[in-house]
Amino acid sequence: MKKVLSLFLAVLMLTGVLALVSCGSGGAVDLTVGAVYIGSQTEPAGYTYAHANGIKKAIEALKKEGYNVKLLVRDNVPEEDAAVTEAIDALAGQGCELIFGISFGYLNAFSSAAEKPEYKDIVFSHATGYLSNETNFNNYFGRIYQARYLSGIAAGLKAKANGVKGQDNKYHIGYVSAYGTEYAETCSGINAFTLGVQAILGDEALVHVKTINTWGDPQKEKQAAEALINTYGCVVIGQHCDSAQPQIAAQNAGVFGCGYNSDMTESAKDAHLVAPIWNWDVYYKLAMKTVITDRTAFMEDVGNYYGGLKEGFVDISPVSKNCTSDTQDKVDAVRELIISGEWDVFSNVKLSFDADGKVVRTESALVTNEGKTVISADNSSYYVLNDAGEPVAVEGGASAVDSIIKGSMNYFVAGIEVEND
Amino acid sequence: MVLDILAGFVYSIIVYNIPLLYGTVGEILNEKAGSLNLGVEGTMAVGAIFGYLLGCRTDSLFLGILTAAAAGALCGLLFAFFTVTLQANQNVTGLTVTTLGLGVYYFVAHAVHSRSNWPMMQDCPSIVKGFSEIHIPLLSDIPYIGKAFFSHNLFIYLGIFLAVLVWWYMKHTTAGLRMRAVGENPGAADSCGVNIPRSKYLHITAGCAIMGVGGYYMALHINGEYLASSGWINGYGWIAVALVIFANWNPARAILGTFVFGIFKALEVYAGSIAFAFPALFGWLKAVPPKVFTALPFLITALVLVLSSARRSKKSNQPAAIGVNYYREDR
């Protein structure tokens, strides 16, 4: 029995030594990163793919700078606290110093893990959420509304060039959205798109929103786009949902559209204009590099991340051949304004273009489609709507705007028509 | 304008819900032969993925349909082998076929997609042409009605033709009568010389082939766009199982049932449009949460089920021996 045991121990030690040797051959690891995915890490497209691809690109970029990052993944983790905590424990146990969670529902598990004393040296980073702490837990998201504004400009220009108006003498534009005011993310996207359209068409534009109550369902997305075209005579279809079906429906009906998430021109060659897109690798690289260089400075240097056009975190896909010839110039002009910080979408200044294509700024109040003022024309007061739909003044003015766009925006701006809400 | 919206609505009901008819007719063939096959969802998914991939590779709609039917039939053979030959529990086997079918669907789709040689339907001219709308002469020229009912793609007409064909087969042929006998009382049918296993194998396989074609249609209708987050069949197979009850195991009535279920399913998206078109009559639709429309077909099915069993109606066509395996030595 003793012989067997000693043999077993010998084999165990040998394998241990071998394992150490094989580890060493990969070069010193500067950082071990953990990632918790909602879908499968090998998915060929979609939300998890976007993040997995972003992390992969960030690691490759860091490698070129001489940093060796090791990635450990737990995928197909459902939005249940027990499952997420288990995934975090496993990643922490394997030595991860930075753990990303990509889905909104991981919020509580990430928050409580960050508070555990044994994990105080690990940085937790949670996408799309709103919780954080001062030492090792942040959230990250992007100003996709800026990209949506730019796509709205492309849509407005196309509608104008197309020239088809409804009986009410307005340009009708459709928008297939996963949800409406329930999520600030969808709500701010629809508003930004509409404001972009209005930069070209002013109050001659009417944006019709159809919500489908799911982030992705190809059948419903297609059907919703068809219904918008068929019912209101929409000439451009914007979207906030996963598939390219709204663009395909637009193409079948001979109208145009703005996709989302990826350049959908390939799916609808004759219809697609531009699509707002995410560059997740921009954030992932920043987060990883900060932890490598100075982990303690993470919350100071990165903090709660809300990158936009300026950081290259969000953008629009290349202007397609279906866009009008002046689209590129006008989009670039507004992009400049946003990147330089001179102007942003949700403000008291409305943009338009003069005959020479120059940007004209006009001070005017931001008003909801129910006629309530959200930002006054003189920029002196900001409001959100409470549950009863009454405007409530917000403390802090401009500094409060980000939190409204991210978390509490629950109204549609004037010029939007929603069917059911 | 208003009529345009209405015609579009009816058109939409038909093109989005015809797969339900394929699933239902296929399932009726299964159930009428005494086999409760809960594998519809999986069978449709398998038919869809193989039909789409092979059809696009060869740029042939006919081959695509054939492949989808063959792939569906294979799922049927699997189900039949387990439940008829090995006498396994039908419910469990059916659920297994669904799980397995969806697994095969994701596995194959995933493998092809991640090697980035996913075939694009728009690059297959003869499939696009074969799938385009066929305008029935004269009838399709009728304003509004023509657009709603007589300007559809091949699969719509084929689905209705199949439903009528299966109805006629069950009602007016000897083979159909025998098959119904197998579903009602296999022991009696056996004593009359009906080959029970053969009849079951045949009808399960044929029914599943029809389901496979329905799945293929769903793939083509969205241009074969593959999303990792949601499959092509998206619960249609389950609705078909419910629709069988609603249609009272009658393939011809399934056409009507598909349309009724289709109205509710289409209203999930179209309610706002209908409210816009008929503000006085249907303005209230705007206030109905869309989830209600999602649930309605199932609520109605439950109601039909409760009513028909409460009345112990003679009219119910539910096969008496459904879900029960037949083992000759048990008699």
The overall number of domains of chain A is 2
Based on CA atoms alone, the radius of gyration of chain A comes out at 24 Å
Shape of chain A: globular
Residues in helix, % of chain B: over 70%
Overall outline of chain B = globular
Highest-level CATH class of the largest domain in chain A: Alpha Beta
User: Structural class of chain A, please?
Assistant: alpha/beta
Largest interface: A-B, 38 and 41 residues
Fold-level CATH name of the largest domain in chain A: Rossmann fold
What is the percentage of strand-forming residues of chain A?
15-25%
Read across the widest sheet of chain A, the strand sequence of neighbours is 2-1-3-4-5-11
| Integer-rounded radius of gyration of chain B | 20 Å
Work out the helix count of chain A. 12
Low-confidence stretches of chain B: none
Explain how this protein is built.
- The complex is a heterodimer of chains A (421) and B (331).
- Chain A is of the alpha/beta class.
- Chain A has 2 domains: 27-142 and 280-307, Rossmann fold (3-Layer(aba) Sandwich); 144-275 and 317-358, Response regulator (Rossmann fold, 3-Layer(aba) Sandwich).
- Chain A is 40% helix and 19% strand.
- Chain A has helices spanning 2-24, 47-64, 81-93, 107-115, 144-162, 184-201, 218-232, 245-252, 280-294, 298-301, 327-340, 398-408; strands spanning 31-36, 69-74, 98-101, 123-127, 137-142, 171-177, 205-211, 236-240, 256-258, 276-278, 305-307, 314-316, 349-353, 359-363, 366-367, 373-375, 383-385, 391-393, 416-418.
- In chain A, the strands form 6 sheets. Chain A has a 6-stranded parallel beta sheet with strand order 2-1-3-4-5-11, with helices on both faces.
- In chain A, helix 5 runs antiparallel to helix 11 (327-340).
- The longest helix of chain A is centred in the first third of the chain and has 23 residues, at 2-24.
- The radius of gyration of chain A is 24 Å and the shape is globular.
- The N and C termini of chain A lie far apart (74 Å).
- Residues 21-25 of chain A have low confidence and may be disordered.
- By secondary structure, chain B is mainly alpha-helical.
- Chain B has a single domain (2-135, 153-315), classed as ABC transporter involved in vitamin B12 uptake, BtuC.
- A two-stranded antiparallel ribbon of chain B has the order 1-2.
- In chain B, 47% of the residues are buried.
- The mean pLDDT of chain B is 92.
- Classes of the chains: A alpha/beta (421), B mainly alpha (331).
- At the A-B interface, helix 2 and helix 7 of A face helix 1, helix 4 and helix 12 of B.
